[in-house]
Design goal:
This protein is α/β, with parallel strands linked by helices. The chain is built from 14 helices and 24 strands. The strands form six sheets. The protein has a four-stranded mixed β-sheet with strand order 22-23-1-24, with helices on one face. A four-stranded mixed β-sheet has the order 2-15-17-16, covered by helices on one side. A four-stranded mixed β-sheet has the order 4-5-3-14, covered by helices on one side. A hairpin with a 2-residue loop joins strand 20 and strand 21. The protein is elongated. It starts with a strand and ends with a strand. The structure holds uridine-diphosphate-N-acetylglucosamine. The site of uridine-diphosphate-N-acetylglucosamine has 22 residues, from helix 1, helix 5 and helix 6.
Length: 419
């Protein structure tokens, strides 16, 4: 199994490009199931989760052509299998995103109950209740969600709590439903807006993207189009924190600073200098020492839970005490015990991590527990003295494209071994 070895202490310097957003790519790929026409998607990141979604589509009967440089072309005219099997779904809970499109276009879907990152209980009840409100008959048996419908109809659905993939699943289903669907308390994440833009290019009638009320007037059918996936804001911010904790000076290209207002504010509060030399470029310069920042994760436009682990590393190396509250997922502090192995002083009180900054971290063997947690271990390793050996790095490959190559290009001493 692959391991990543990081020898810390090098200030990152240089320029690297940001990849397309994983969390925008996965729903866009699922949305292609809504039409039998050809769809072309570009700026697709090379990630394990994307491969899993392509495999899932392939076994539903999609014809897929991947051009590493130009993106993917998908033709779903031959889709004839409506079952998303356990073996694929268990590795990626976003597989649930095929449920809405399959029921809406084919009137049936059988989706294994999802697995994915082991953070909190992560139920899918809102996806199921929403589809029921739109007229689907849904049963749960043998670990599968079985959904049937002649044609879905519009409904008013209040999503509580705010759910990203839940909003996406129901928005896709509503695009082909009979009549108007109103999604209240909808997720406002940029990836949800990107999906709405893509669906509208396919002929959908969706209003309100980026607000908490989505109004979707269903149409009879959708058609082919082309779409470029937005930049990955979580990857962008992860590299920003990497520059911060190594006191480096890096520039990120192909990025979208507008989707990162809250994290950028928090980094500035920590003393980091963030500049925008061009609208799609971000330069990060970090002083030593860093200041600690308090924060609370919350749905967009709040501070993303997917950056909580990375900010724990920053606070661990800042001068003073800080508190990070995790309000989106329960049980999302599994990386804390690994960071403690490197010498971080983090104390957990319920959903709050109290961080006492230390002078330095010391390299040690650690184990990745989920996708963003593994990124935090790489960041800690970059800042630590000595070698940090990270095992179970398959988690990181789910969501970060060529992370070690990109960090290497910025001067990090990082390598992957497959011992
Ligand atoms: C998405 C992102 C993930 C991110 C998360 C929160 C994708 C592919 N993944 O995950 O990277 O960490 O948003 O920003 O986009 N909930 C329910 N019932 C449901 C659905 C969700 O109670 O039916 C709860 C969850 O347990 C959680 C909260 O809602 O506490 C938010 O989860 P949700 O937004 O659904 O996360 P995902 O869409 O799975």
């Amino acid at each position: 199994m692959d391991k990543i070895i990081v020898r810390g202490g090098h200030a990152l310097r240089g320029t690297i490009p940001i990849s397309g957003a994983k969390n925008a790519t996965l729903p866009a790929l699922a949305a292609t199931l809504l039409t039998g026409d050809r769809i072309h998607l570009s700026n697709i990141p090379h990630l394990k989760d994307v491969t899993t979604m392509l495999e899932l589509l392939g076994q539903h009967g999609s014809a897929i052509t991947v051009d590493e440089r130009l993106g993917v072309e998908i033709n779903n005219s031959g889709v004839n299998n409506f079952r998303a099997p356990y073996d694929l779904v268990r590795t990626m809970r976003a597989s649930i995103l095929v449920m809405g499109p399959l029921v809406a276009r084919h009137g049936m879907a059988e989706i294994s109950l999802p697995g994915g990152c082991a953070i909190g209980s992560r139920p899918v009840n809102l996806h199921i209740e929403g589809l029921r409100k739109m007229g689907a008959e849904i049963t749960l048996d043998e670990g599968y969600i079985r959904a049937r419908a002649n044609r879905l109809h519009g409904a008013t659905i209040y999503l509580d709590p705010v759910t990203v993939t839940g909003t996406e699943n129901l928005m896709m289903a509503a695009a082909l439903a009979d009549g108007r669907t109103i999604l209240e308390n909808a997720a406002r994440e940029p990836e949800v807006s990107d999906l709405a833009i893509f669906l509208n290019k396919m002929g959908a009638r969706i209003q309100g993207a980026g607000t908490s009320t989505l109004i979707i007037d269903g149409v009879e059918e959708l058609h082919g189009t082309q779409h470029r996936i937005i930049p990955d804001r979580i990857e962008t911010a992860t590299f920003m924190v990497a520059a911060a904790v190594t006191h480096g000076d890096i520039t990120l290209t192909d990025a979208d600073p507008e989707t990162l207002e809250t994290p950028i504010q928090k980094l500035r509060d920590a003393g980091v200098i963030v500049e925008f030399p061009e609208p799609d470029r971000i330069r990060i310069l970090a002083p030593d020492p860093l200041k600690p920042v308090d924060l609370e994760t919350s749905p967009y436009p709040g501070f993303p839970t997917d950056l909580q682990a990375q900010m724990l590393v920053l606070n661990s190396l800042a001068q003073g005490v800080s508190r990070i509250a995790e309000t989106v997922f329960e049980n999302r502090f599994m990386h804390v015990s690994e960071l403690q192995r490197l010498g971080a002083d983090i104390r957990i009180h319920g959903n709050i991590a109290e961080v006492h900054g230390v002078d330095h971290l010391l390299g040690a063997p650690v184990m990745a527990t989920d996708l963003r947690a593994s990124a935090s271990l790489v960041l800690a390793g970059l800042a630590a003295r000595g070698a940090t050996v990270i095992s179970r790095v398959y988690h990181i490959d789910r969501g970060y494209e060529r992370i070690e190559e990109k960090l290497h290009a910025l001067g990090a001493d990082i390598q992957r071994t497959s011992a």
